[in-house]
Every structure is written in C-alpha cells, then in structure tokens.
Design brief:
Elements (H helix, E strand, L loop, with lengths): L6 H22 L1 E14 L4 E3 L9 E13 H9 L4 E4 L10 H27 L2 E14 L14 E5 L2 E2 L3 H9 L6 E8 L2 E8 L1 E6 L2 E5 L2 E12 L2 E3 L10 H12 L9 E4 L2 E2 L5 E2 L4 H10 L4 E5 L8 H12 L4 E5 L2 H14 L4
Parallel strand pairs: 3-14, 14-17, 17-18
Antiparallel strand pairs: 1-3, 1-4, 2-13, 5-6, 5-12, 6-7, 6-8, 8-9, 10-11, 15-16
Length: about 350
C-alpha cells in the first residue's frame, strides 16, 4: 500500500489550482468593456521632418494619447478603486461587425488622414506651395450583410456614381442622401488596375430621425494625393486616431517658418484639424489632461465647446481643477486661435 502524499504537498497543489483559476478569472474572462486610462505626452518634433529646415528651440509641441485595451475582470475592479480607469462599452468603440484588429487598422487610417489635413492646414496658413488632388473614394471596409458585400472589395476605388465623377467620400454621401432605400446606383470602380462597372441596390444604414438612411454599405475614405514644396514626412508609428491634428499642424508651421512658436514652453494639446484649420472635438480629454500634467506641460490647447453636445472644454477644466494641474488651459476653435495665443506669449512672457 502506497503512503499518502504529505498534507503540505496536497495544500500546495490546491493552492496552485486556486491561483490558476483566480488568474484566469481576473485576466482571461472577457467583459463587454474597454479600459481607458491616461497615456502619455509625446513630443511631435521627432515625428515630423520638413526638408531644408531646422529648429533648435528649447520648448516643444506635444501630442497627448490615451491608453486603451480590451477589458477584463481585473480592470473592472481597478476602475472601482482608481478614477483614472474608465470603462467604455465595446459597442461605443467598435463599429458594427468590427473586431479589435479592424478597429486598430481604422485608427491608423484615420491618423493618416489627420496627418494629410495637418499638412494642408499648415501650408495654407503659411502660404507655402501645396497641391491637393482628390482621386475618389477608397473602400476601407465593407459592412457585413449590406449590398456592397456581394459587389465591392476592400481597397476598391470608386470614381463615378451613375456616370458622375465622385472625388471624395463627402461627395458620395451627399449624392446618396438624395436616393431612397431600394434604389439602384451604378458605380465605376478601379480594382488592381482594372476598371469595373457595378450596380448596387441601396440598403438601410439606419434612421436619421424618422427617415431611413440609404447607403451601399461601406466605410469610405477620400483618396487624395498631396504635393508640397518643401516636402514633409510624418512618421507616427502605430499611433492611431485623429486627435493629434492640431499639434502636428503647429509643429509643421514651426518648421516651415524656422521659428520659435513655443518660445521655450512645453506646449501640449489635442483636437482634430480640417484642411481649413478648424479644430474639432476628441475623446478621452480627461485622460489627456492627466498625461500632460505628468509630463510637466506649461500650456494645453483644448477644443473649445462651440456646438450643442460639445464637452471637451468643460471636462478639461473640471479635470484640471480636480487634479490641481499646474498648466494653462487654452480653448481654441481654430488654428488661428492657437497661433494668436502663442504670439501673445512672446510679448507677455518671453521664455529664457
């Protein structure tokens, strides 16, 4: 007869199993949330190169980020104890039929478009040479169970609709608004060098008020080519989203003018940018204020609340007050507001 294992060995086995089960529950059990928390404040100067220019200022422009990851039980518990952790329902982050990989790919694509907008805004503001050529509507993603699923593929370039040229996603959306669900439209599409003509029956993208919204069922992006003199290169690695637009624009202007826009200050901020220089609202502003404060930022540009539902300015002020942030919060509606503020800083408080 075999001797039973010593009690302490059995205890270690039970403890090990309990730890493994607890680990699985805390880290591996999926929950329908994303965990959002402060990211970092990153200097944008190393990300941007304007040929033939050089700046040696002591200050710098910083973009701010949030950290976002798929949620787990541990994250839910942490959010109850630490207000820096925010739980965001997955359906508020992911589009219908989108998985986390699709989401990250979409964010990188949005970042690319934001960089293009920043280049256009900066060159137009400084009067430098820039050419923009709109090439059509690129199919970034085909929505499942929609008419386009049987006709279009990711990467297709739509150049005409019902025989009329379509140069941007805005033009395509505006044209389809005049149609009804069930109508048919003819699309001219470029696919790997071939020209195709396809007919698509419009589906229902949901309702705007009481009216059904007709669409072909794609996530469109405007395909365009930008040429500048001097040449600009932007390299932001895998950072996604549109919210660095304003800060990219300011850094490009700084390099184009060989100037000292920061006047020695650490200037952070956030906000989308249009080619015309208008600054737009973003998500996670409270986390970005915390990230900027932790990097000892002096000035923070925040999108001004100008329309019903806007809340960036309000939430930024609430967060700055709550954490006792030692930074100057500056609401801006457009690029000109930010530039005007920086110019006044030179007269009022020249940095050494």
């Amino acid at each position: 007869m075999k001797n039973p294992k010593p009690w302490y060995r059995r205890t270690w086995v039970v403890t090990g199993l309990a730890v493994a089960v607890l680990f699985a529950i805390l880290f591996m059990v999926p929950v329908p949330y994303y965990i959002v928390q402060p990211g970092s404040a990153l200097e944008v100067r190393p990300m941007i190169r304007v040929e033939g220019t050089e700046t040696r200022e002591k200050g710098g422009f910083f973009m701010t980020t949030v950290s976002m990851r798929e949620g787990n039980v541990l994250g839910i518990l942490a959010s109850r104890l630490d207000p820096r952790f925010e739980l965001v329902p997955k359906d508020k982050v992911l589009m219908e039929g989108e998985d986390p990989e699709d989401y990250q790919r979409r964010q990188v694509e949005i970042m690319d478009r934001s960089q293009q907008n920043a280049v256009l805004a900066a060159f137009r503001e400084t009067g430098k040479k820039v050419k923009e050529k709109l090439l059509g509507v690129r199919v970034f993603r085909v929505l499942k169970e929609m008419p386009a699923e049987k006709v279009l593929k990711e990467g297709d370039l739509i150049t005409k609709v019902d025989g009329k040229k379509v140069r941007s996603s805005e033009e395509l959306i505006a044209y389809l608004k005049g149609k009804s669900v069930g109508d048919k439209v003819q699309l001219q599409v470029k696919r790997k060098g071939d020209i195709l003509v396809e007919e698509v029956k419009l589906g229902n993208l949901g309702k705007t008020g009481t009216k059904e919204r007709p669409g072909i069922g794609i996530e469109p992006v405007t395909e365009r080519k930008i040429q500048t003199d001097p040449k600009v290169t932007v390299q932001a690695d895998d950072i996604g989203g549109p919210s660095a637009g304003l800060m990219f624009t300011l850094e490009i202007i700084n390099q184009l003018t060989n100037g000292n826009l920061t006047h020695g200050y650490r200037v952070a901020g956030t906000g989308t940018i249009t080619p015309e220089g208008k600054v737009g609202q973003i998500g996670g502003i409270q986390h970005k204020i915390i990230a900027a404060e932790e990097e000892n930022v002096d000035i923070f540009f925040v999108p001004a609340d100008t329309h019903p539902g806007d809340s960036n300015e309000k939430r930024a002020k609430e967060t700055a007050r709550k954490i006792g942030a030692d930074l100057k919060l500056v609401p801006v509606e457009n690029l000109e507001d930010a530039l005007t503020f920086l110019e006044k800083q030179e007269r009022k408080n020249q940095a050494s």
